[in-house]
Amino acid sequence: MKKEKAVVVFSGGQDSTTCLFWALEKFGEVEAVTFDYNQRHRLEIECAKEIAETFGIVHHVLDMSLLNQLAPNALTRTDIMVEDGTNGELPSTFVPGRNLVFLSFAGILARQVRARHIVTGVCETDFSGYPDCRDVFVKSLNVALNLSMDDQFVIHTPLMWLDKAETWQLADDLGWLSFVREKTLTCYNGIISDGCGQCPACRLRQNGLKEYLSFKGGKRHV
Length: 222
Description:
The chain has helices spanning 14-26, 43-54, 65-70, 98-112, 135-149, 164-173, 177-183, 200-215; strands spanning 5-9, 29-36, 58-63, 117-119, 154-156. The chain is α/β, with parallel strands linked by helices.
């Protein structure tokens, strides 16, 4: 795939940055796309810009503010608390239709820049119950994209079956563990690197890192 081109759905967080490095290893040319949906921690857009600039990657930022109007949630509204789901409900951070919209527009962009491959960091292992992070959703959307544009896109999900510890291992195997730890933004409160340590995203990230570092001497196979 070294001669082919990919578009990476890129938020500047741990998962998408790891996927960016994965794509740079796999493809001859890589572009990144970040979506501005009036997210609460808007620093992630600046973080994504800085990472893309550091590596000389063409970076697209698309206006998706309509999503904020249609799907109010804790990631876009300061008056909604960040809370885990209870009694089978989804977390307050779930944005209905987000990955459906993001991957659809990534496909449209990919067609315009003549890229056949789309890379996203969705994961079914540590997915917080989000239905649009499931493998079955991605595969079905891949078919829909190809039919809608009469094209042959391939959506890649390098993290789909990895837990957070294994995601840290992948970053390490690619040679970018320190960069991902120090330069990415996962925290729901908009704090780069290790974050606030309290929000669900930080706890998931830190627990995964702690687990990975504890068995780094005898790595699990990814």
